[in-house]
Specification:
Blueprint (H helix, E strand, L loop, with lengths): L4 E11 L5 H10 L12 E9 L3 E10 L9 H5 L4 E7 L3 H17 L5 E7 L11 H10 L3 E4 L8 H11 L28
Pfam family, one: Ras
Keywords: Nucleotide-binding
GO molecular function: nucleotide binding
Length: 196
Amino acid sequence: MSNNRFCHFKLVLLGDTAVGKSCLVVRFVRDEFFEFQEPTIGAAFLTQTLALDDATVKFEIWDTAGQERYRSLAPMYYRGAAAAVVVYDITNPDSFAGAKSWVKELQRRGDQNVVIAMAGNKADLEAHRKVDFNEANEYAEANGIIHMETSAKNANNVKALFSEIAKRLPNNTQGGNGEREAFPILPQKQEARNCC
């Protein structure tokens, strides 16, 4: 389309350690999956572009470390983010409690217009499920956030999750070059780095 807009948005992944944040983003960006992923130290930066009907959205993605000792660094990454994906592991109820804590923090301290999505990852491990889908869905609905169960291993709902986020970002407003001014991006190198 001749009037197809190109929009940049900062997106951050948050969640407890070992829930599959890095695996999820590597599946989205490079369509790869590694059974054994080294834990993220601090944060990793990746980019991915997604085409919608009326816009092309470039996500500038910060994949944050889940270890408790890095939690104090998180505000540096979610500040100014247009979207956040809070990840939990469907086989680990503590990670769901942690995800709810991240949602509260984003609602309290994040950008007031941030689009929040909650991803119940490791959906391929249905036999080991400990977090009820309906419970998580009701929580998401009550908080006005997106909820999907995903599997980085088999790619289930990974692209769909990021597409749904992109559709909810304000890329249809009047203006010349997308929403870069509305959602400032922290200064950073524009090249993708490996997350491992």
